[in-house]
Design a protein that fits this description.
The protein is built from one helix and 13 strands, in the order βαββββββββββββ. Strands 1, 3, 4, 5, 7, 10, 12 and 13 form an eight-stranded antiparallel beta sheet that branches. The protein has a five-stranded antiparallel beta sheet with strand order 2-6-11-8-9, with no helix packed on it. Strand 8 and strand 9 form a beta hairpin. The N terminus is likely disordered.
């Protein structure tokens, strides 16, 4: 149902990133691209108080640095699962186009005792048709004998037949309200320790890219 990779950050990481198929690469997109008219956040991993989230880039190269996003197994069950949902109003597109999230990348620092694991989920939907959603999921277990303690980056691709498109862009250029929810859940038994978030040189972050079609 998806293409997913979750792996340590290494110099050769770029080779593992899913690439667009020839069909996708040939698809058109409106020019100029739309803009993000407004953005807000909700969830335990990105409280509304600044500076919980730093946004970089514009519509085409958006990135979110989640400064308060931390999940751990030692602080109680509620803290082992953390989420952040971004709400983006997108406008300024040429009429007659639809937009969908296609590729998602998430990054952070991960600590897992042997036997523990991290599951992550990225769900996207449009508020104009909130009943239609798509979720990509990845998992990283520690099957070794020692503690895993490293930066990780995960890449997920929504299959062509499962992408959730926006409404058809209006004559005024309004695309819609896009919601992207990133959630992690640590799975650990007994005294096993698990953590996902940040360290001295890494902060949890996410970015995504899009696919277009005419309507």
């Amino acid at each position: 149902m998806r293409s997913t990779s979750l792996l340590p950050l290494l110099p050769t990481l770029a080779a593992a990133i899913p690439t667009a198929s020839p069909e996708l690469a040939a698809r058109e997109a409106p020019s100029p691209p739309p803009r993000i008219a407004s953005v807000s956040y909700s969830g335990s991993g990105c409280p509304s108080a600044s500076p919980a989230v730093d946004r970089t880039g514009g519509f085409e190269d958006i990135g979110l640095r989640l400064n308060a996003f931390e999940a751990r197994t030692t602080a109680g069950p509620a803290d082992s699962s953390v989420s952040c949902q971004a709400h983006l109003a997108i406008a300024g597109a040429a009429p007659g186009w639809q937009l969908a999230v296609k590729d998602v990348s998430v990054r952070g620092h991960l600590v897992l005792d042997p036997g523990a694991s991290l599951d992550y989920y990225v769900t996207s939907f449009w508020s104009e048709d909130a009943g239609r959603t798509v979720t990509v999921k990845g998992s990283l277990p520690n099957t070794g004998a020692g503690q895993l303690n490293q930066d990780v980056e995960a890449h997920s691709t929504v299959p062509d037949g499962q992408v959730v498109y926006s409404p058809c862009t209006s004559a005024q250029g309004d695309v819609g309200l896009l919601n992207v929810n990133f959630r992690v859940a640590l799975q650990a038994d007994g005294a096993q320790y698990g953590y996902f978030g940040k360290d001295v040189d890494t902060t949890a972050s996410e970015n995504w890219s899009y696919v277009w079609r005419r309507c």
